[in-house]
Amino acid sequence: MLGLLGRLPDDLRRLLRAFVVAGHVLTPEQLGPLAGRQTLPPARAWRVLVGIGLVPGRGRCADPGIATWVLAGMTRADRAELYGAAAELAHRCALPEEDVARLLLGAGPAGTRWALDALLAAARSVAGQAGEAAPYYRRALLEPLADTTRAQLTLELAAADGAAPHTGEVRLARAALTPTAGPLLGERLAAADLLVTRCAPERAAGLLNGLAPGTATPDLGSLAALHWLATDSPDGVPALGIPPAAYAEDRLDPDRAGAAAWLTATRGTDPRRARKLARIALSPVRGDTRLYAPRIAAAWTLMATDDPLEAAEALDGVLADARRRGSRAAAALALLTRGRLSLRRGRVPAAEADAEAAVEGYPLTRWPPPMARAWLGLQILLGLARGDRDAAERAAATPTRGTAARRGRHHLDTQLLFARGLLDWTGQRPRAALHHFQECGRILLSRGWVNPALVPWRSLAGVAQRDLGHPEAAEELVTAEWELARAWGTRTATGLTHLFAGIALPAGSASFRLTRAVEALRDSPERIWYVTAVLRLAEAQLDAGQPAGVSGLLHEAGRLAKAYRLDAQSARVRELTARLAAQPRPAGSAQRADRKRQALSETSAQVVDMVVQGLPNAEIARRLAVGKRAVEVRLTRIYRHFGVAGRAELRALFALEDGEFGTPC
Questions:
Q1: Contact, 322 vs 359, CB < 8 A?
Q2: C-alpha to C-alpha distance for 387 and 202, rounded to whole angstroms
Q3: Does the structure show a pLDDT above 80 at 214?
Q4: How far apart are CA 422 and CA 416, in angstroms?
Q5: 21, 165, 260, 636: most buried by Cβ count inside 10 Å?
């Protein structure tokens, strides 16, 4: 076959070259101008190539080696010229811009607007696909461009090409090495924003420190926000016109409000102000922003203030923008954060879907190391939530990337450390758990982050200290965490502190602390920890020989464990239910309860029966043909009559007598 190619006349060789280059987008009739003058009529020349097997009747060359040989016989300049002519011909034939752009990849600079438009259209059409957009951006940068356009395209290339972490950071920094005058300041700020989302705050800070726009620039809010987030410092920089974050009030622009909200949350001082600033950052009436880092910071703030729906909406917006603009690191970070939020809310399948989508859109090997470690932390927590310790242990044993000098410095590293600590604690390895929780504290305290709503490392370190036989150290840690949780004041922060205090402190105060934990977490977003608190309270009451009310607690825990598919918690419900069934009934208690029931009116006795059956107040009111408020008033009197605290204890009182010990699920 190669010998046949060598004997082809020049005109047929030119036609074959034209077909090899553009036959996939142009018809044989359209290829004529590329092939030049032919000695044979076009139709006959084409039949000759088809007849000798060099060109199939349809599609591309039958043998890729033919295409390689045909083009190898040309100089690089000749090949580029042929591809350029094919691209121009495809443009004149009004073919799709993606087809024109594929031809331009092999051509030299065209210096025309249509060529640049085709390349950018192709790049942006595949921006969300791994590695697909980068060749088009690189080719577009070969065209003669204005400085502003070149800076913008370099930035888009650095965001979209999915290079290795260090390479990606370098390219982003280079994208910003332009004068700061005019609109190019915005491109440098966008580069700094992407560096922050790629977990490279030091590079972002160095880039920002090279700017001196003055206080009158309209980009001051974005500059201040990125500086605060990159340096993790609320202090201002007078030389750059950046005020301290303490001056961030509700009149601020969205970017600055988002960063100030997060700094407020990390210091754990004012949840109302943090929530207010986060809402400003995400409010559409305050103006749109294309920066990712301040919006992600606002979402984290809303997670810390127990506002999960608003946080999820913010992350959805970041994800949509990042996918549209091809910023795969920002998209992965938004998915990772949303997965953590879903897990907090007990939505394990949704969290698993986000974790899977994050690595599908952006290969884990190209993630910045802190993000990759946070992803592994999420995998550990998902394994624990599903009751799959083997999966959790495999994730914990996965080697992590990053140099020793940098490992553990980024705040995302605390997510893996905390998850490993939980895995060790639940696996009866308190010394290893203590090490991981203390490492969390080291990283956070080095940044000035004290809010237990971010990571409750002190309380769990206290639990580990208790398990190691150090009660004084445990009490010191729990007490310090309680003071900080009380200052922040959200239900999640106070509830978790009570929960871990109930585990870490002496048994005498366990029931009180765990009761407070259940009360606080009942209305918090932390569904999995709420179920854990309910089970811990049920266990503490059984340990104290106080089974009244345990049945109701197990019913609540079983219902939620089933709804959220928490296999480990469901197994624990069954264990405690069996233990409750084995509890001896206090002598004479059944007779006393029965005598008290006989003293009730007929209507009140009916209400007791319906409560024991598990009917809600609305159904009881319907059956009695009375208002719901009337049922509530009557129940209050019934509780007082039996000396119980609520419907759970009332139900348990009669359920024990009737032998109702089935799994509450």
A1: no
A2: 39
A3: no
A4: 10
A5: 260
